Amino acid sequence: LPACFLDSMATLGLAAYGYGIRYEFGIFNQKIVDGWQVEEADDWLHYGNPWEKARPEYMLPVHFYGRVDHTPEGVKWVDTQVVLAMPYDTPVPGYRNNTVNTMRLWSAKASHDFDLQEFNVGDYIEAVLDRNLAENISRVLYPNDNFFEGKELRLKQEYFVVAATLQDIIRRFKSSKFGCRDPVRTSFETFPEKVAIQLNDTHPALAIPELMRILVDLENVDWDKAWEITKQTCAYTNHTVLPEALERWPVSMFEKLLPRHLEIIYALNQKHLDHVAALYPGDSDRLRRMSVIEEEACKRINMANLCVVGSHAVNGVARIHSDIVKSSVFKDFHELEPEKFQNKTNGITPRRWLLLCNPGLADLIVEQIGEDFITDLSQLRKLLDFVDDETFIRDVAKVKQENKLKFSTYLEKKYKVKINPSSMFDIQVKRIHEYKRQLLNCLHAITRYNRIRSNPSQSFVPRTIMIGGKAAPGYYMAKMIIKLVTSIGEVVNNDPSVGDKLKVIFLENYRVSLAEKVIPAADLSQQISTAGTEASGTGNMKFMLNGALTIGTMDGANVEMAEEAGEENLFIFGMRVEEVEALTRCGYNAQEYYERLPELRQAIDQISSGVFSPGDPGCFKDIINMLMNNDRFKVFADYEAYIKCQDQVDELFLDPREWTRKVIRNIACSGKFSSDRTITEYAREIWGVEPSMEPLPQPDLPEV
């Protein structure tokens, strides 16, 4: 998402920077060994990175620990440990507009005199080796998805990126003109007019107290003025409604690591609660819900509440998600300041996710409607004129078939799996998580397998079901789900009575470079999360743009995809948000579905009796136990509708012309999901800047 956003910001000519951490080790490489996920460090800088340029001249200090002195001259944060932040710049070119923006990533370096004064000469070696402790801050990316793990190193990372970035922003604000590093501006009155900071989730929430610290403690701005400046500068994007994903840091950890920030958070929370109490006298429950500090056995800082209090705009990332944000997650805050809440539906860049990954389809589209769609994706609507054009229908189907052949070859070479390229490529690729319901996909695969086995002479639409994605290393259930997928594959792919009719494949090490290969080859895109759990998703949009049809629930951006293309051009099934909520209220009982649906019962019995794990019959007992007794995501409740919907998918696939006409309609209606549209909305409605499609003059040409 941020990569798409950077591409769009450059293409729209915005003077925008992407800031983050230069991790030495990114997300782990995934290996599958005996059907289980094994993680391996991804030393991506091993051979160097030609796109980055170190900028030691802009290196900045970041402070940790220490204590706070309240003196007559003001507040001082003293006796801190210093880590240096070394910036590395990567160019971000816009599309053919002579604009190149910057992504600046910070790397941690030990300060020159790191701890040397602490040691006598005898400990010199030890002291030098200890420099690693400081430099560990940018060592490794935490690989959790939608899960908060309150580790001190993670909090250090969050403050590190924020502190370095804010110093950088303020240095740039103070400099009068490009290239001048002497501070000129001293008044911060105009700061929010010149600077917009978008908080991508709560991870950089510390930008709010850090900006306050800089303004109040270092620049001597009055508290109330500083608070206005901070709020007008910051805006917050929420990315999840799952409670286990929300960041809630222990106050004790904060007190030690960032003592001044804790004081500032207490102070701003007090002012905020005074305001709420004045409006809702006697409503102590509301105060508790809206406080930035959670007063339980372990006092915690609720980073989401901090973001809402300290921002002038809060947005979700798809319409249904933004509605849930207003009606449940931040209900009290929405009642207080409804004007603060917005929606900004996510998008993807057509430069990477069409031109680069699917040149065959891109060329076809250019032939029909020219190439203006590349920077104005809404123009894809012109393709609706060709939905009955036999030549175009044939050409679209041909490109898809070529992409499938190419991917089949890749799969055979890389993983030694032989697949039938004329089968339906049925694909679910995303992080492995219970809410994304890869288990529902598994149940369909087993049901399909059972139908083929019990009707050997019947003709079936051949399918290759591919599931891919990484599980967080500590997420036991997600790792079990991967084992289940690989185990189903072992049985199905080696059963001679099935032959070419069904294959189940786990795609190892799913990542952007693999997505660029698999998405153009997909026939069916699975987007089957429980309604109300997937904030938006962007894979769904990539598949739509690349000529796959979607089977999905009314969740995340699927809702808007169905609205754009027409619900009849997607395979929509399952409970809506209201039905999920109603089922939660009256009590979800998995047993009831198990008893009522024979095919579901058969599949569950096969998993639990060891049909898919003959060497270890009890292998999947924890999955079965979860599904039967504590499934938060109600897999069984959508099973029947899902299987019926999959039958409709088969029926349409038997009519290649009708299938391809639906594909064309989907491509033609995917224009809304360009990140150019998303960024234009952020720019106009949150940042207060106007995008420009005018290319800059070529740097090597004299200006006229």
UniProtKB/TrEMBL annotation:
Its cofactor is pyridoxal 5'-phosphate. Gene3D superfamilies: Glycogen Phosphorylase B. Allosteric enzyme that catalyzes the rate-limiting step in glycogen catabolism, the phosphorolytic cleavage of glycogen to produce glucose-1-phosphate, and plays a central role in maintaining cellular and organismal glucose homeostasis. Glycogen phosphorylase that regulates glycogen mobilization. Phosphorylase is an important allosteric enzyme in carbohydrate metabolism. Enzymes from different sources differ in their regulatory mechanisms and in their natural substrates. However, all known phosphorylases share catalytic and structural properties. Homodimer. Dimers associate into a tetramer to form the enzymatically active phosphorylase A. InterPro entries: Glycg_phsphrylas, Glyco_trans_35, Pyridoxal_P_attach_site. GO terms for molecular function: glycogen phosphorylase activity; pyridoxal phosphate binding. The modification N6-(pyridoxal phosphate)lysine is found at residue 542. Belongs to the glycogen phosphorylase family. It catalyses: [(1->4)-alpha-D-glucosyl](n) + phosphate = [(1->4)-alpha-D-glucosyl](n-1) + alpha-D-glucose 1-phosphate. One of its GO terms (cellular component) is cytoplasm. Keywords: Acetylation, Allosteric enzyme, Carbohydrate metabolism, Glycogen metabolism, Glycosyltransferase, Phosphoprotein, Pyridoxal phosphate, Transferase. Its EC number is 2.4.1.1. This is Alpha-1,4 glucan phosphorylase. GO terms for biological process: glycogen catabolic process. SUPFAM superfamilies: UDP-Glycosyltransferase/glycogen phosphorylase. Pfam families: Phosphorylase. The keyword Phosphoprotein applies.
